[in-house]
Design brief:
The chain has one domain: Alpha-Beta Plaits (2-Layer Sandwich), CATH 3.30.70. It is 29% helix and 33% strand. It is built from two helices and four strands; from the N terminus they run E-H-E-E-H-E. It starts with a strand and ends with a strand.
Length: 75
């Protein structure tokens, strides 16, 4: 298993319910270990995932499919 992290910046302002819903959506992706928004910066979604099961591109596409504009932030 190869674990990695990716941070995605969400352009829209999300309510707490919307953030929770997006985290739940990300958890359903095979290989996602832990998605979570930064408490101090609600636009940043940090996702820990298994690179053997999913890709950064697939994670970003899931965010976009949920109706949000986002981009990967270098770490």
């Amino acid at each position: 298993m190869n674990i990695s992290d990716v941070m995605i910046h969400i352009n829209e302002s999300l309510s707490e319910d919307a953030r929770t819903s997006l985290e739940d959506t990300m958890r359903k992706i095979d290989g996602v270990v832990s998605p979570g928004f930064n408490a101090d910066k609600a636009h940043l979604l940090l996702i820990t995932y298994n690179t053997e099961k999913t890709t950064t591109a697939a994670l970003l596409e899931t965010v976009r499919a949920a109706g949000y504009t986002g981009q990967v932030v270098g770490m």
